[in-house]
Structures are given as C-alpha cells and as structure tokens.
Amino acid sequence: MELLGIPLPALLSQLLLGLVNGSFYAMLSLGLAVIFGLLNVINFAHGALFMLGAMLAWMGGNYLGLNYWVMLFLAPVAVGIIGIVIERTMLRWIYKLDHLYGLLLTFGITLVLEGVFRSIYGVSGQPFDAPDVLSGATNLGFMYMPNYRAWVVVASLVVCFATWFVIEKTKIGAYLRAGTENPKLVEAFGVNVPLMITLTYGFGVALAAFAGVLAAPVIQISPLMGQSMIITVFAVVVIGGMGSIMGSILTGLMLGVVEGFTKVFYPQGSATVVFVIMVIVLLLRPAGLFGKQK
C-alpha cells in the first residue's frame, strides 16, 4: 500500500522516528516554557545545559564507572543544582529588567559552558552506549523499532505530562503561578516565593539535563550538541505559545512528526519546515497556537 507514491511502511517508520525527535523537542521546550511562564526569563542557556546533562552522564560512566540509570538521575540533579546557583547569583538581579538582559546573560552562560568543554574535549563527538536492557529492536511488522528509541518516547511523555499535571492541577502549581503574578499576596500566606522561584529554575534546567541524558545514546555527545537543538526548540516554544506548558509538549511532538514526514516527501525542506510553520503561525496568531491573546 502506498500514499502519494510513498510506501506506507516508510511513512509509519518516519512517524515513529519523528516521535523520537519530537520527544526531545517536547522535553526541552517544556523546560523553557516552565522558566519563561513562571520566571519571565528567556533562558538561552537551555541548550548548553542540555549538553551539560549529556556530558555529565558520559563523564560519570567514563571516569566513575556509573551506569546509565544512575546518571539518568544524578546528571539532572547536578545540573539542577548548577541552575540554582545561576539563579541565586545572577538571574535574580534581572527579573524586573527588559527580557533582553536575561537573553544576553544566559547567552553568555552558554558561551562559557561550551568554551570550557571545547577546551577540554574538543568538538569531536563522544560515544555513549545505551543500557543493555534496552539494546536491540522490536519487530513491528513494518519496521524494526530500536528499543532505546521507544524508551525515549515513553520516558519523555511520562515526564512531560507529569510536569504539566503538577503545575496545572496541584496546589504547588497554583502557588507557583500565583507567586509570579502577585508575590506579596502569596508571601502573606507564608510561602517563601524567592525560594520557590529558585527551585523552579533548577527544575526547568534539570528537565533539559534529563533530555540530554536521554539523547546521549542517540546522538554523539559534543560541546556543541545543544546548538543544533536550541534554535529549533525556541521555534517550538514560539509556535506553541510562550509560557504554555501543554502547548510546548503538544507542539514539540507534532513538529517532530512533521519534520519526519518532510524528510520523506521533501528532504531538502526538513531543516526549515519548523521555521516556515513558525512564520505562518505568528502571522495568523501572534501569541502562538496555545498562547493567550492579549
């Protein structure tokens, strides 16, 4: 069976592979949306912290002999702590300033992190093996689906929707949203708003590190690996709506699939299709697909 001259198994294969890329987009854009939506900061350092998570996972395995599962937990925690330090020492001073200051500051952090790891490891990629339990592939009839890529999709969806649930449906999430809109009122209820904001930033960058560890066995680890992701992820956030949690998740998954299908029908356009969609969405709905119109 064919669709527009393309064998159906090939299309289904690209659908599944697009979901893998979409899972990375969703995880990274979710972290960006959490930070912008609750802290009002455009975190350009997100790609570098994605790289840092992957690098720490590789270093833990290469130097300390720690396995993938341990580093899947430790790397996000370590990056989250680094994020807390960044927020307490730098970002907290610019919250009331124009967005440009946050963008420039986090861009500078990106250059520092990438420069440090480039000076130590160069720009060549480092291999990172998937855990043995997730090696091999499963025969789906129309393709062999690598078990690790299936794990990436499942893990990303669980983390993304769990984060959405906590922020949108729980008391903690209500405090977070209220704390960014009216901090004095929330503090009157005994909530430590500055601490809550600090932990929110730490959690947002920990999501980037978690995505980095998930990506490590799929793409080679290098100091520049975040650069190839962050521009596309920013486009995802803009399309979904700046600060929209669910918009970032759904848009990331959707654009991963669209990008995968574009590689089948028009391979030359796969690198730009996301940006074409972004331009169209901004022309028709400037706040994004799921953003609130002002």
Automatic annotation (TrEMBL):
Subcellular localization: Cell membrane
Membrane topology: Multi-pass membrane protein
GO molecular function, one term: transmembrane transporter activity
Domain of life: Bacteria
Any Gene Ontology biological process: amino acid transport
Main location per the UniProt record: membrane
The keyword Cell membrane is assigned to this record: yes
TM stretches of this protein: 32-59, 66-86, 98-117, 148-167, 195-219, 231-258, 264-284
UniProt family annotation: Belongs to the binding-protein-dependent transport system permease family. LivHM subfamily.
Protein name: ABC transporter permease
